[in-house]
Amino acid sequence: MLCQTHGALWVTATPCRGEQLRQGAALAGHEILWFLHADAELDSQPLSALR
Fold this sequence. Notes:
51 residues, mainly alpha, 3 helices, globular
C-alpha cells in the first residue's frame, strides 16, 4: 500500500472535514500538528519557522 511505503497511516472517516481533522488530530503523536490545505502555497522555508 502506498501509505505504508511512505510511513503514513490511512484512516477512513465520514465525509465531513471537521470530523476528519478531529480524527487525524486525535491520532497525532507529536508536539506540533500542522493542517495544510491542499492548495496552499508556502513560503520558501516554512518548516524552519516551525522549528
